[in-house]
Each structure stands twice: as structure tokens, then as C-alpha cells.
Amino acid sequence: MQKIKILKLSPENTALLKACAELEKICIPEEAWNLESFRSEAEKPSGFVLVALDENQNVVSFLTASCILDTADLTNIAVAPEYRRQGIAGMLLKELCARIGKVSLFLEVRESNLPAREFYQKHGFEQVGIRKNFYQHPDENAILMKLESE
Asked: Which pick of 1, 63, 92, 119 has the fewest CB atoms within 10 Å?
């Protein structure tokens, strides 16, 4: 595996935020965030946009989240197809947990997205509920998952 560097982006990191939006179009085209969505998340005092950069400073993965008091929401995570199954998403998740401390971390994932659900379970998340018809294109339930970070 290549050497990976993790950064927390600020709203001024326009080129890297744009790279996140481009990666999102590849990974989740039907629900992709645009540049302004990533910038907005980075602007929030409670927001996180973490990126994994390869040796050439290319964005190969990102994670977005927000944390308020003792609760955090993992809103988005993606890895470039050629970098999957190398532990990069796990590195981002570990970095987020280190930054937010002891909180309850929640996320929603498509019911049909078994690889993502297995990834989250591997990293300690547990299913705590179902949100009926949460997703569109196609309509689908979301599995609500929770991790007690330390």
C-alpha cells in the first residue's frame, strides 16, 4: 500500500474539496454532493471533511461528519475504486474517532449495501434501527447504525 496522509480540510482548501466532489460523482453518482456541499460541511464549527491523500497529493478517499456535544453523525465516506480494500476508509474512521473523542457516532446506510454494512460492523458499529424509505433513486430503507467511540 502507498503512503497515505490524512488531512482535515478547511473551506479554503478549494482544490481538495473539489476533488472530493469529483470522487463522490464516481462513487455515489445518484446522491453526489457538489463542491458547495463539501465547503459548507468544512465551514461548520462542528463539521469534518477528512481526506486521504496518496503520495502525489491526490484525494483517494474522504469522510464527512459533524459532531455536536456527545453525538456525531458520519454523513459520507467514499474510496476511489482502485484504492478500495486497502484499509483507507478504516484509517479515516479511526482519525475521526480520535478527533471527536468519546461520543455516540451514528450513520445511515442503504439496506442493500452489504459491503458497507459489513465494513461498519467490522469497525464496531451496531444496527440500532431502520429508517423506512429514507433513500431515493431507488427508494430504499436505511439501516441506522451506532458506534460508541472512545
From this structure: 1
Task: Tell me which residue of 73, 76, 52, 72 sits closest to 64, measured CA to CA.
Answer: 76
33 in Cβ contact with 140 (< 8 Å): no
Q: Is the CB of residue 59 less than 8 Å from the CB of residue 44?
A: no
The residues near 67 (Cβ < 8 Å, ≥ 6 apart) are 46, 48, 73, 100, 103
Report pLDDT for 41.
94
3-state SS, residue 84? coil
Report how far apart, in Å, the C-alpha atoms of 28 and of each of 4, 70, 80, 126, 149 are: 22, 29, 11, 23, 26
Please give the positions annotated as active site: 108, 120
How far, CA to CA in Å, does 114 sit from each of 49, 51, 80, 109, 134? 24, 24, 18, 9, 17
pLDDT band of residue 2 (cuts 50, 70, 90) is low
For 64, other C-beta atoms within 10 Å of its C-beta total: 25
Give the global pTM: 0.91
